Amino acid sequence: MNNELELKDLYDGFRDAKTIKAYAKIIKEDAKLLDKDIHIMEVCGGHTHTIMKYGIPQLLPSNIKFIHGPGCPVCIMPKERIDNAYVLSMQENVILVTLGDMIKVPGSKASLQDARAKGADVRFVYSPMDCIKIANENPDKRVVFFAIGFETTTPMTAALIQTVIKQDIKNICFHINHVTVPEVMCELIDTTDHNIDAFLGPSHVSVISGSKIYEIFPKEYKIPVVVGGFEPVDVMQSISMIVKQFIEKRCELEIEYKRLVSYDGNKKAQDLMSKYFEKTTFKWRGLGNVKNSGFELKEQFAKYNAKVIYKDVLPTQEKKDHKLCICGDILRGVANPPDCTIFGTACKPTKPVGSCMVSSEGACAAYYKYGNLI
Amino acid sequence: MNKTITLAHGNGGAENNELINKVFYKAFKNEILSKSEDAAVIHGGELAFSTDSFTVSPLFFNGADIGKLAICGTCNDLSMMGAKPKYLTCSVIIEEGFEIKSLEKIVASMKEELSKNGAIVVSGDTKVVPKGSVDKIFINTTGIGEIQYKGISSNNISEDDLILVSRDIGAHGATIFAAREGMDLETSLKSDCTSLYPQVEALIKSGIKITALRDATRGGVSAVLNEWAKQSDICIEIQEDKIPVCDEVNGICEMLGFEAMSLANEGTFVLAIPKEDAQKAIEVLQTFEEAKNASIIGKVTQQYEKKVVLHSSWGTKRFLETPTGELLPRIC
Ligand code: SF4
Ligand code: SF4
Fold it and tell me: What number does the ligand 2 atom closest to the CA of A335 have?
């Protein structure tokens, strides 16, 4: 019975029509007092998805606009890393394990889905810990965990590494592709001719890292941030909080998603991450190299690092995206999916050209799925 | 289309349709097949004819097993054409090493479900293949039914019809996901797997006019509505808050990033019923325990040709697309 309650708690009340309508009214009223248009960047693909799925723009006055951000670990994965995953999966006696959508993303030649169709053992798991079971059941094979995700999933990978070391499991290694959010937000502001007036920060990330990671934006860049949840009520409330900041001439870091986010975040998870990982430069698709925006296994754990173990076979060459694909501009917030000339024609979820169409959190996929009414 | 088959080609959604159209329909083209109904109407409109193969994992789950599914699946396809399931064939492909005990359990559920339909198995086949050639057991059933109500077709839906569902949606798909390895989810959720003929029979007997019926299996309600919109050249407008979804299904969708509308069902059907009979159809359905939350979920218009529009309770709208790809859980 307990379980039932927990599942319901995930969404209950946060899709309530009355509350959503009430926020729509408040925002409309408040927005009349604005002296200019406000462009809110939702950093995270999860938010893009909510915004499109629940038709949020239809509820907002015309002077409040969204800019879609770089927000999804699948979208931002450069082709050469996907090529790495592909090559790893094709190695003899390897079981390549990863999370969800990663399987569908096209690399420079093929996707993991194609590898699987060719006979490679590619599996996706709900939780990285499942790798242990797979490794135990296949003692003569090596499980390579292709780890992806923002701060949200990084601690789970760290916890897996900890268990592997503790239990001295010999047949698991890691290809780490974890990235962090604040650095790329700075990069966007510093290098793009942007018109971002406010950020809607992803709550998942802050559950781990705390809201403190966004302190720099109101302080140094004079851009307010509201850390918000993913349900429609959360998004509406966050927008309302942003609008209020503008009419009251405030510029602050605020948390909408108080039910789980604190200023400091989850200390234990943070310690776990810093025990095994160090910050490195990560090449983001469409954005290029961003300093300190990625995680890599620390050198002392090299024997668990797939990049070291398989260094002789892994491709290092950088690969360009399809020449018509403007994912890069979309991820930088300077273009919208329909601006792409092959959006919805040569590029569809069934036959994606770029990863923004692959990931269910990608902006192109969200527009394709929900956006064509508006 | 891809050069090789991927799991997405079997999802009941867009890729699946593309494969069927470009490979099978292209080769087998004929008037009956191209109607694309749940079951073929043959023999001067007297009989319905249908086939289906079952490959579910795990084989046993809350509410059903592969045997029950194999009977319900084919019988339901017949029922959806207003036909009473009569004769079935059953062929099984079994992996070397499979336990006889499990096989007996599966066959016992088949027998039980056959009796609910008043149907019998009249022919069959068994193949055993080396370990690794199939995943434990695959079952194919083919069935013939006697049409009791003529003229049901998903090609004839019009603005005179309302759209109904027979119960809360997504329970089968969510149960299977919860039962999969690595989920560690304890729920009291049960597959909706059931034989639909009794419900269809009750509708027919009470004199209700029926335009179209379809059980919402792979691809869920969303695939059915999209197919209907295309086949009948109409726009289907659905009111989201009228769609019954139980809390547990909602919770699982929330956790894994799925939509209940795209999850598979094995005992839930969508109906297009002329407006004047719609309310009565709900009353008839609700006399069945499994259909007690049957609901009118939408109407037919011409607003956006061949499209399904979903209206939220807070006044926004969006298209509901045919599901695509393999159902994969989201990353975070
Ligand atoms: S990984 Fe999750 S929290 Fe992070 S950006 Fe993507 S959807 Fe948002
Ligand atoms: S529509 Fe496709 S090709 Fe164009 S930007 Fe989006 S993902 Fe890239």
Answer: 5
| Contact of B191 with B217, CB cutoff 8 Å | no
Reduce the DSSP state of residue A243 to 3 states and report it: helix
| pLDDT tens, position by position, A206-251 | 878 888 899 999 999 999 999 998 889 999 999 999 999 999 999 9
Contacts of B302 (CB under 8 A, 6+ apart): B159, B234, B235
A124 in Cβ contact with A168 (< 8 Å): no
Query: What's the predicted TM-score (pTM) here?
Result: 0.79
- Cβ(A353) to ligand 2 under 6 A? yes
Q: Is B55 exposed, middle or buried (0-12, 13-18, 19+ CB in 10 A)?
A: middle
End-to-end CA distance of chain B: 30
- CA dist list (Å): A40 to A236, A240, A241, B37, B317: 12, 12, 12, 47, 22
- Which of A157, A260, A147, A127 shows the shortest CA–CA distance to A206? A260
Touching B: A residues 107-146, CB under 8 Å: 113-114, 116-118, 124-127, 130, 133
Residues B6, A114: C-beta atoms closer than 8 Å: yes
- Contact indicator for A197, A39 with CB cutoff of 8 Å: yes
Contact B4 A114 (CB under 8 A): yes
Residue whose CA lies nearest to ligand 1 atom number 3:
A204
DSSP calls for A63-118: TEEEEEEEE-TTTT--HHHHHHHHHHHTSTTEEEEEEGGGGG---SS--HHHHHHT
Which atom of ligand 2 approaches the CA of A357 most closely?
Answer: 7
Place of tokens 């799991």: B7
Nearest to A294 by CA among A3, A76, A123: A76
ipTM over 0.85: no
